[in-house]
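Cast an eye over my tokenised protein here and flag anything odd:

===
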Amino acid sequence: MKSSYLKSLSDEMRQYRLVVIYGAGGVAENLLILLESYIDKNRIVVAVSNIKEERQLAGYPVKRIDDFAEMRDQALVILAVMPRLAMEMETHLRRLGFQNYMTAEDISKQLYEEIWQAKISKNKIVFSSWSGGGFGGNGKYIALDLLRRCRGLDLVWVVKREDEKLPDGIRGVVYGTYEHYRELGTAHIWIDNEHKNFFTRKREGQCYIQTWHGGGPLKKIEFDGENLSGSYLDLCEMNSEMEDIMISPSGFNSGLYRSAFHYHGEIMECGYPRNDIFWQKNRCREDMERMFSFKSEELMVLYAPTFRNFQRPEGDILHFSRVRKAVEKRFERNCRIFVRLHPSDIEAAKDTPWLTECVDVTSYEDVQELLAAADVLITDYSSVMWDFSLTGKPVFLFHPDLDLYEKERGYYLSFQEMPYIEAFDNEDLCGKIENFDQERYMEQTRAFVRKYGSFDRGTAAKAVGDRIMSILEE
């Protein structure tokens, strides 16, 4: 279904020689996705107030807004930023002599005036994991529980591509399109594991369930975080005001939702649905063996580093052949190393030669299935360490760039207070693998999980499913 409003906006843009998207962050990126099928791309430019180096946004070069001042009478400017920045940027536009402009907020208001003419569909639930990042996360296990209970629900999953495969009974909608916002605008319940973007608006009668994506006392987040932008925190505040229920995996996380998210609504202290897999019989290991052709007697080591906003020195890269030898020496079994890079690192890693030494599972949708199949986890700062703690299996932390990362984010606890085995270079890591004390590690891990109040018992998806059914029946 096409939008009458966006069609009229497209007609208006054709009157100008140039359409300037003023802003190069998340709001601008989502605006370009929304307008993609309505705009003449040859008219579009992306601009910012100041730029230090060449960059692109969604394939468009990013320029300085001052560079277009001579064309101000032939240009329509769209301020594609959070409202806090829009006022400041509007002043700069007027100073340059631009008179034809609108804001992303103006577009959003008009968009929902159209969408909200349709009624809420009482049985519709829209799921999103990592902005269309695939069928995974907590939402996957909630959706599967609902499918088992009731076939009369309209379950919609946000995807990146129209042809993405989903289970029978779940249909897809492409992230950031008009159709996506129309599904959200007419759904009874939303379920997400990260903040919804700026163009999301909630109406009376809708329920927003936030499952979040990180567990345990690890990285500082949201209003506790260091070096997070004001725009990101504005997005956090916007979401906290819309959310009705947050799903908590631990007592520690429940406290964070109040302090770091500024959230005051209902908290379900039931654990994470994605972690139920560790308590239930599953075929994850057998599936990995079949899909990647390795033997049941081999040890599966999963390396899952997190995203960084800085470039790692070459010497800080994990030496897979040395690590493999250390693992095989300690556990007396042949091993295969599987690598799961952060989704934001996928493009950068395509030409990385060291991936040929491993099994690359970066594109595998559900990291929880990888965790359930793995025997050993090596990570750095990712919250998967908390999830894997629940299995009692070994977690090794590879921290050659600890000082840089702590400056970027900060942690609630020092790593010395955690039970995981920390190493600072390849030699250190291999030595600690070879001397790993399984019994001592398991004792410390069990105590750590108890101390920070894990709620996971393998029943979270059912608990959330029960709550959703009660909402639908109201």
About this structure: The longest strand covers residues 121-128.
